[in-house]
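TEACHING EXERCISE
Course module: macromolecular assemblies
Task: Read the component lines below, then compare them to the predicted structure of the full complex.
Student: A.B.
Group: 4
Components provided:
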Amino acid sequence: MNTENEMNEEVRQLLDSLEEHGKNVRRQQELSDLIDRLAEEEKTVAMPRKHRKLTPLWWAMGAAAACLLLWLLVKPNAKQQPEMEQEILVETTKAVDSVKTEVPEVILEAPVAEEELLAAETTNETEKSESGLLRSSLPRNDVQEKHKNETIQEQLLAENTTTEPLESPKPTDTANIGSNHTPIESETPSAVQKPQRRVIRSLNLVCYDCQKNPEFITKPVMEDRTIFGHPQDPHMKNGSLAFEIKRNKTLEQ
Amino acid sequence: MTTEEFKRDILRLQARLQRTAESIIGDPDSAADAVQETVITLWEQRATIKSQGMEKLSLTIVKRRSIDLLRKQKPTIPIDTESLMLAEPPQDDLEERYRLARKLVDQLPQRQRNAILMKYEDGLSVEEIEKATGMSSTHVYATLSRAYKSLREAIKQYIKEEQG
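Instructor-supplied answer key:
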């Protein structure tokens, strides 16, 4: 009986060791799972940051690749575009050339008209020298503008000398311009008035230049004063044109 | 220290940590909790831990955790912390006994061996063994009873061989 109990005790210890080993195996499994979970938690905390950094980069790279592909696909078709551009360029150069060719005519015409007029009415030499002095003193743009103004001025002069008396009220600048520019009914008032204003302004400019150059033209006498200030010079009514005509007249006399 | 290295070291030390915690707390389940808390602490510090110092550090931590748990369980009882910290973990011949038990169990007939291993090593209940094997409960009990008898005989035989 004693040996039986001892045997039972031996069996119990043996079975306990089996049980203990089994428990240890399960605990080890639990610990292993715990470590895996800790590692996963660490990854879930750390990995998204990496992904957040990487994802936009990949998107950007993908977008860049797509753009490159698109560009490569579109590029062969784009070869046609330069031809169109060339056509446009040719047209624009033509237009520019036409404008360029027009400008010198104006510039060249101006002295000729001036010369003709002055030859008929005044002595040519003094006029040429004076105008040459004036041209050289002005900048290039001013010279061009001056020439334009002069051509307009000459045209007006020609009309005035042939048809109108000197002191009479002008067929006016607007009327003169109106002969060149016939306004259409559909045009807006501003569109119609625009060239007039330009002429008037240009005349003022010329007048200003004339005033600046006392040799070119004598200033009107502004001694007589009224309560309204200086009396307006009758010649100033027509701007420089009047001065020019008056000067020519005096020279003629 | 990589995760795999950490896991390998912890599983190697698990039995010793469990025994140490059990020797302080006295309860295997609470000891298992202390071991788990120790593992978490070690995981947080694994970057600074070297593999050589792992055993000492883990034993120190598990002792402290066990004392903390013991204090929580028995707040009125004074605890000699110093002696518990200095105490060596109990030497256990569990591995040797397990090897002997496994050797004797492996000699049993297959049905008895499966029943014994399922009940003790896997920790299954009789109902779970019924479901796993398809046997009835009476059949499971009978099989287990026969397995005990066979083990007794096997132990006798083993002792005879050892003595002889």
